[in-house]
């Protein structure tokens, strides 16, 4: 389709006018032809939006340091054996003491018969994340939009996390962790959708994988903060304030709503084009996949039931839910399992795990389009499964730690690759609701992970290895989405997929 611009003279008077041809196009086509798929505007917006992932890492991983079991030592008195295999269990009160900073375990005695409470509080956070994802998913696709949802979640995160630092007793702490999880459950996913929906199709996979570097950077920063603030209460305080600063100083003034879900779509697209040094012809407008619809059309919001009814999306949804549940058990389990790999270097272990994820993201970004989503997903899952299985069979701490690093490298790649993959499996109209359903399954897996970790020794690795092998096999049944368009509606996807299968 060719468009001729109207000519004007230098003094502003009309010269030889050539009538512009009216044209309509979907978002992806406009990004390719007139706006730029990933120019300076998108780069700035992408970087600012994904700062939310750093905050997500703070609120999710702070439990590793706050709920750690510190070292202990014997005091004067009989009956205390330094370095006992059973730890402090069975020792008489007053014969030993905690050393090496404060934690919830030390403050409230969460050891021996009370150790389950550590896993319970951590599971409460993931339970909140699962429920919060359900609460916020419709708001993101309707009244609040992507930007409004992310802003509200960050404010709630900051408030509840700050309140956690003041917890007077264990049950108040567990409740506040649940409430923090309510907000945290939607932060990363909403930031991911908001950042990538503004990127053109040829760059979306690679750019989407880059989002997850921010989470790893957040884990490294958190390790430094844990060193500077060894008190668990102070650590909660300093990790809560950045969420409030981000919401009011960055999100509200600088982040734009996605043009795929706003009645000011053309205004947004023109702003992106201008920031990238391009311009959109005057008589150009946006449509969705179905020509009778536009981004501002008044149509009922699709629900997860629509996804389940469609013969194209139903098997994708069921497989994605199963895969993300088991992947999350392994991913969060390996992340939290650093507490079983030696107390003396906990901060270093967390930082190493975070750094181990970075090469995986880069490899996945390079291989996504070359090898396809399905082979890369299955391959990384099986690599993690082998590493975890070996870790369950060895007893040397250093070897088991190495297996954990390889496992977290593979499963972090898988976990975040799934977000790119799943986002492509569903059209725009139901993308957020589908992603949130899948992520809720992942958060259910996150609830199970701490309960596996408290088993201790080699048992967690055995469970993680079995889960990883199973999800690798399940991933082979997902359709390959490389080089396929990002559809806007269910009808558009059904029509497009039918044409692809028939052709």
Automatic annotation (TrEMBL):
The secretion signal range is: none
Tell me what this protein is called. H(+)/Pi cotransporter
Source species, please? Answer: Acorus calamus (Sweet flag)
* Superkingdom, taxonomy of origin: Eukaryota
Does the keyword Transmembrane helix feature in the UniProt annotation? yes
Q: Which GO terms describe its cellular component?
A: membrane
* Example of a GO MF term: symporter activity
Q: Which GO terms describe its biological process?
A: phosphate ion transport
Region Disordered: start-end pairs:
1-24
Alphabetically sorted, this entry's keywords are: Membrane, Phosphate transport, Symport, Transmembrane, Transmembrane helix, Transport
How is it placed in the membrane, per its record? Multi-pass membrane protein
The protein's predominant localisation is membrane
Q: Which residues cross the membrane?
A: 118-136, 148-172, 178-200, 212-229, 235-256, 317-334, 346-368, 380-399, 405-426, 459-478
Instruction: Report domain Major facilitator superfamily (MFS) profile positions.
Output: 45-483
Q: Which family does it belong to?
A: Belongs to the major facilitator superfamily. Phosphate:H(+) symporter (TC 2.A.1.9) family.
Q: Where in the cell is it found?
A: Membrane
């Amino acid at each position: 389709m060719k468009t001729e611009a109207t000519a004007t003279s230098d003094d502003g008077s009309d010269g030889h006018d050539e009538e512009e041809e009216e044209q309509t196009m979907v978002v992806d086509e406009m990004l390719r032809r007139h706006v730029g798929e990933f120019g300076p505007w998108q780069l700035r917006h992408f970087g600012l939006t994904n700062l939310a992932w750093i905050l997500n890492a703070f609120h999710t991983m702070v439990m590793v340091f706050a709920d750690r079991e510190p070292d202990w030592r014997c005091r004067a008195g009989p009956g205390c054996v330094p370095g006992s295999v059973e730890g402090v269990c069975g020792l008489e009160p007053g014969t030993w003491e905690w050393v090496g900073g404060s934690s919830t375990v030390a403050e409230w005695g969460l050891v021996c018969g009370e150790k389950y409470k550590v896993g319970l509080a951590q599971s409460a956070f993931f339970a909140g994340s699962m429920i919060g994802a359900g609460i916020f998913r419709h708001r993101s696709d309707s009244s609040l939009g992507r930007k409004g949802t992310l802003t509200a979640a960050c404010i709630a995160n900051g408030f509840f996390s700050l309140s956690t630092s003041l917890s007077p007793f264990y049950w108040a702490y567990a409740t506040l962790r649940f409430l923090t999880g309510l907000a945290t459950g939607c932060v990363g996913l909403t930031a991911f959708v908001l950042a990538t929906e503004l990127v053109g199709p040829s760059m979306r996979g690679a750019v989407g994988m880059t989002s997850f570097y921010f989470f790893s950077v957040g884990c490294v920063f958190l390790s430094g903060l844990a060193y500077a603030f060894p008190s668990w209460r102070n650590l909660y305080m300093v990790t809560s304030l950045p969420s409030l600063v981000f919401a009011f100083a960055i999100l509200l003034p600088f982040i734009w709503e996605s043009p795929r879900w706003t009645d000011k779509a053309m205004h947004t697209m023109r702003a992106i084009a201008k920031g990238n040094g391009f311009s959109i012809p005057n008589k150009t407008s946006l449509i969705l996949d179905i020509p009778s619809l536009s981004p501002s059309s008044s149509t009922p919001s699709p629900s997860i039931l629509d996804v389940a009814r469609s013969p194209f999306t139903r098997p994708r949804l069921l497989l994605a839910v199963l895969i993300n549940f088991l992947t999350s058990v392994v991913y969060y389990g390996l992340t939290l399992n650093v507490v079983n790999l030696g107390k003396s270097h906990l901060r270093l272990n967390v930082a190493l795990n975070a750094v181990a994820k970075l090469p995986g993201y880069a490899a996945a970004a390079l291989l996504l389009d070359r090898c396809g989503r399905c082979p890369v997903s299955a391959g990384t899952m099986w690599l993690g499964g082998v590493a975890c299985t070996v870790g369950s069979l060895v007893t040397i701490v250093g070897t088991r730690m190495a297996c954990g690093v390889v496992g977290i490298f593979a499963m972090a790649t898988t976990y975040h690759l799934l977000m790119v993959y799943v986002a492509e499996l569903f059209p725009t109209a139901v993308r957020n609701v589908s992603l949130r359903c899948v992520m809720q399954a992942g958060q259910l897996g996150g609830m199970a992970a701490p309960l596996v970790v408290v088993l201790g020794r080699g048992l967690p690795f055995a469970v993680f290895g079995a889960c990883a092998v199973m999800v690798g096999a399940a991933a082979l049944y997902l359709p390959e989405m490389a080089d396929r368009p990002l559809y806007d509606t269910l009808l558009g996807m059904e029509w497009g997929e039918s044409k692809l299968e028939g052709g």
